[in-house]
Design a protein that fits this description.
By secondary structure, this protein is mainly α. It is globular and about 80 Å long. 52% of the residues are buried. The C terminus is likely disordered.
Length: 451
């Protein structure tokens, strides 16, 4: 191996990549449990398909556009690694092989569009969604990843490497990006039939809790792995991730209890995910005490933010906007207040003597990524809707999207129904006349059979 290679760092990053990959099935369970029974499979596969489509696109051109040498003022990478050519097996990125780094970043690219799908649950054509996913990661995610994550000594992405907008693991590039795209698609597709009238409660809270647990577990790879080395920075990111997530759950549940009078399992799961989202950009820049404050504030803030869809009339089915757009933006902005200036960055926030400079940078990053994603997602969604149609028919939506789009159902109730029918049916008695050998059938066990 070449000089500078670290087997420990490489193992750490590869394990982290596997953890991030697990987050996409975890998201599928989280979203799948939150929808009604008739949409369960559709919700699962809308997340799962990203593992296929984005992986292929990443190899063909996604990696080079995101992490290739800058080709135009920090906006996009060049085409030198199309098809992942010109990458040697032992070529390094820092202390790890380029292929290990590319695999880690691929998992970020996979889960980001999958996050969007929750905003349009119950009503999108699967083919239209697959096309949107393909176009959106190409036009939006790959360039934004270059802006935020590509570092080359001041010659990389214009937001992260040149303007010093801090985003350690994807609060802007992943969560705000996906959340604003989700808002755009809500407006393109319109409201679900029965929105604000019919009950649309989660059909399986155990699935929701399982999904949130898998997300929490995988998120340690997401955040700590972004250090790209098994070092103290990874340890700080890991610890802050746990702290903020726990605090956000408490903040969400406290708001829920005050507002609605109950502590719910859905609130606990949503609060945990909110904390994970909010700490993602900040996990390597703030202190553990700062993580508690960030978690409490963002947990309560996002719990309040999900009510905006009822106030403004957009149907964000699974609260992608309230959790990911608001959580990602608030976590990124709080860096401008809570960054210590002596952890993963030298740029201190307002509370640590850095003035408003870093807060202004963070606000610029949030505004640019949010507007770019919303506008492009809206245009892509509108074009698809006007050409092939993005939304299923009213009959399909009412009857259930699973059978119409996938010819399957998540749960087979036929056996249950047959067993129940047998249990409730009157018992049948066959009586035999011993003298003549003839049989008579009674309607139920209480009927007398005449010989």
């Amino acid at each position: 191996m070449p000089s500078g290679f670290s087997g420990g760092d490489t193992a750490f990053v590869l394990i982290s990549a596997a953890l991030v990959m697990l987050m996409t099935p975890g998201l599928a369970f989280f979203y799948g449990g939150m929808v009604r029974v008739k949409s369960t499979l559709n919700m699962l596969i809308m997340s799962f398909i990203a593992l296929g489509i984005v992986t292929v696109l990443w190899v063909l051109y996604g990696y080079t556009l995101s992490f290739g040498p800058d080709s135009f003022h920090g906006l996009i990478g060049d085409f030198s690694m199309l098809g992942m050519r010109n990458i040697g097996m032992n070529q390094l990125s820092g202390t790890i092989p380029v292929f290990a780094f590319a695999a880690f970043q691929l998992m970020f690219a996979v889960i980001t569009p999958a996050l969007i799908s929750g905003a349009i649950a119950d009503r999108a054509k699967f083919s239209a969604w697959a096309l949107f996913l393909t176009l959106w990661v190409t036009i939006v995610y790959f360039p934004v990843a270059h802006w935020v994550f590509m570092f080359d000594n001041g010659h990389g992405g214009w937001l992260g490497d040149r303007l010093h907008v801090l985003d350690f693991a994807g609060g802007t590039a992943v969560h705000l990006n996906a959340g604003m795209a989700g808002l755009a698609l809500c407006l393109v597709l319109g409201k679900r039939i029965g929105f604000k009238r019919d009950p649309m409660r989660p059909h399986s809270l155990p699935l929701v809790m399982l999904g949130s647990g898998l997300l929490w577990f995988g998120w340690f790879g997401f955040n700590a792995g972004s250090a790209l080395a098994a070092n103290g920075l990874a340890g700080l990111a890991f610890m802050n991730t746990q702290i903020a997530t726990g605090a956000a759950m408490i903040g969400w549940l406290a708001f829920e209890k005050i507002k609605h009078g109950s502590f719910t399992t859905l609130g606990a799961a949503s609060g945990a995910v909110t904390g994970l989202v909010a700490i993602t950009p900040a996990c390597a820049f703030i202190s553990p005490l700062g993580s508690i404050g960030l978690g409490l504030v963002c947990g309560a803030l996002c719990a309040w933010a999900i009510s905006l869809k009822y106030r403004f009339g957009f149907d964000d089915s699974l609260d992608v906007v309230g959790v990911h757009a608001v959580g990602g933006a608030s976590g990124a902005l709080l860096i401008g207040l809570l960054s210590t200036g002596h952890a993963g960055s030298n740029y201190a926030g307002l509370f640590y003597g850095g003035g408003f400079t870093q807060l202004g940078r963070q606000a610029l990053g949030v505004a640019v990524v949010g507007v770019y994603s919303f506008v492009l997602a809206y245009i892509i969604g509108k074009v698809i809707d006007r050409t092939m149609g993005f939304r299923v028919s009213e009959d399909v939506e009412v009857a259930g999207i699973d059978m119409a789009e996938h010819a399957e159902s998540a749960y087979d109730f036929s056996a249950v129904g047959a067993a129940l029918s047998r249990a409730l049916a009157p018992a049948t008695v066959v009586a035999k006349d011993e003298a003549t050998g003839t049989e008579a059938v009674a309607a139920d066990a209480g009927t007398k059979v005449e010989a």
